[in-house]
Amino acid sequence: MSFIERARRTVREDLDAAMGRDPAAESRVDVLLNSPGLHAIWAHRAAHRLWKKGPLTRPAARLLSTAARAATGVEIHPGARIGRRFFIDHGMGVVIGATAVVGDDVMLYHAVTLGGRSMQRGVKRHPTLHDGVVVGAGARVLGDIEIGANAQIGANSVVVKGVPAGAVATGIPATVRFPDLPGEDPYDALYSEPAIFI
Questions:
Q1: How far apart are CA 108 and CA 86, in angstroms?
Q2: Fewer Cβ within 10 Å of end Cβ, the chain: N or C?
Q3: Residue 7: how many CB atoms within 10 A of its CB?
Q4: Distances (CA, A) of 51 to 56, 94, 121, 164, 176
Q5: Would the pTM of this model clear 0.85, i.e. be above it?
Q6: Nearest to 98 by CA among 131, 52, 164, 148
Q7: Backbone phi and psi for residue 128, each to the nearest 5 degrees, phi listed first
Q8: Is 90 helix (H, G, I), strand (E, B) or coil?
Q9: What DSSP designation does 103 have?
Q10: Is 72 in contact with 108 (CB distance < 8 Å)?
Q11: pLDDT digits 0-9 by tens, 81-96
C-alpha cells in the first residue's frame, strides 16, 4: 500500500471515529473542516514522521507541532506515539508529552494533560494509554504509568498511579473502582460514577 493510500485510509478511520464519538458531528465534511482535535492529530502524524527521521528533521517537526498548537490549542510533542482512530473532542488545552504512548481507539476530552513527573532526560516520563481508554475533561495523567485497556479516567481527576484494564478512576488523587455488575460495560459504568462528568 502506498503512502497516499495509507494516508487516505487513516483520514477515513479518523473521520469515522469522530462521527462515532461526537454526537454533535453533523457530517464528515463538518468534522473534516471544523474539528481542531482531528487537525491536531493529523499535524502530529506529519510531525512524528519527521521526528522519527532523526536529528536533522527534528527542528522541522517541532516547528510543525508549534504551528499546530497555535492553530488548534492542542500541544502534542512530535515524539509522542499515537495509535489509530484517536479522537480529541473539543481539543483546547490538551497537552501530550514527548514520551507518551497512546493506543488505538483512545478518546481525550479538552484540557487533558498526559504529562511527566520527572525532569530526567532520556527516560520515559509520560504515561502509556492502552487501547480504548477514555480520559475526561481536565484530567491529569502524570508520570511513566500505564492505563489499562478500556479504562475510564474521570473529569478533573489526577492520576499518578497505574489503572488496571476496565477500571474507572476518579478524584484527586484518583481512586480506582471496577464496574459494579458482572459484564457491565466500562462505558456504561461511567453513568454510575457522577464524578466522571464533573
A1: 8
A2: N
A3: 13
A4: 9, 20, 17, 31, 36
A5: yes
A6: 52
A7: -115, 125
A8: coil
A9: -
A10: no
A11: 999 999 999 889 999 9
